[in-house]
Amino acid sequence: MACAAPAFAQQGVPERIPDTMEARVAACIGCHGDKGRGVENVYFPRLAGKPAGYLYNQLVAFREGRRKYVPMNYLLEYLPNAYLMRMAEYFAAQNPAPLAHARPNAGARQLRDGQRIVTGGLPGKKIPACIACHGAELTGREPGIPGLLGLRADYVSAQLGAWRYGVRTALAPDCMQFVASSLSEPEVAAVAAYLASLPTPGARPAPRGGPRLPLACGSQPQ
């Protein structure tokens, strides 16, 4: 005699979803895209391929309120450190093709000013070049410095503004708070526009080590 199918199968109940990290972070897709690829929305950045240490620090900062965005603060409020690290390692390991972004609406002079700051810094204000910390290709450095490419100008500007006004803070010494608070509004706009004008490479973050950072930075101890 043939065996009857289980009741749940007869009723069309789907099988249990696999208990994998990919399934667990499915809630992140709506804002950050499949595998953290990114989305068209200006304020939801790409997560894929960023250093795990950087992503972990941001998750902890949202959980502890050092970064303020209510949906993220709420979602992460009760998650332990070990689980946040697993999330960070998952997204760090992903490498989906980047989204194509439209070039920012910026003039040639603004882009030149941005390039000057990104590649040479502002010695008069003791602000180092962005490439001194984020790497010559601006793809970040392990374990805690993110890449700066593939981000919209408005997002970069908003994050620099958040550091300037204390809405976003990092582990002490907070090197980015010093940098952002020392930039003028036109300088912020120029940096954001120049970074957003660059193509997004498939390169991964540079390995740990390399040139010594020009500023003490709690997120990247040396």
UniProtKB/TrEMBL annotation:
<keyword id="KW-0408">Iron</keyword>
<dbReference type="InterPro" id="IPR024167">
    <property type="entry name" value="Cytochrome_c4-like"/>
</dbReference>
<dbReference type="InterPro" id="IPR050597">
    <property type="entry name" value="Cytochrome_c_Oxidase_Subunit"/>
</dbReference>
<feature type="compositionally biased region" description="Low complexity">
    <location>
        <begin position="201"/>
        <end position="216"/>
    </location>
</feature>
<dbReference type="InterPro" id="IPR009056">
    <property type="entry name" value="Cyt_c-like_dom"/>
</dbReference>
<keyword id="KW-0349">Heme</keyword>
<feature type="domain" description="Cytochrome c">
    <location>
        <begin position="109"/>
        <end position="199"/>
    </location>
</feature>
<protein>
    <submittedName>
        <fullName>C-type cytochrome</fullName>
    </submittedName>
</protein>
<dbReference type="InterPro" id="IPR036909">
    <property type="entry name" value="Cyt_c-like_dom_sf"/>
</dbReference>
<feature type="region of interest" description="Disordered">
    <location>
        <begin position="201"/>
        <end position="222"/>
    </location>
</feature>
<dbReference type="Pfam" id="PF00034">
    <property type="entry name" value="Cytochrom_C"/>
</dbReference>
<keyword id="KW-0479">Metal-binding</keyword>
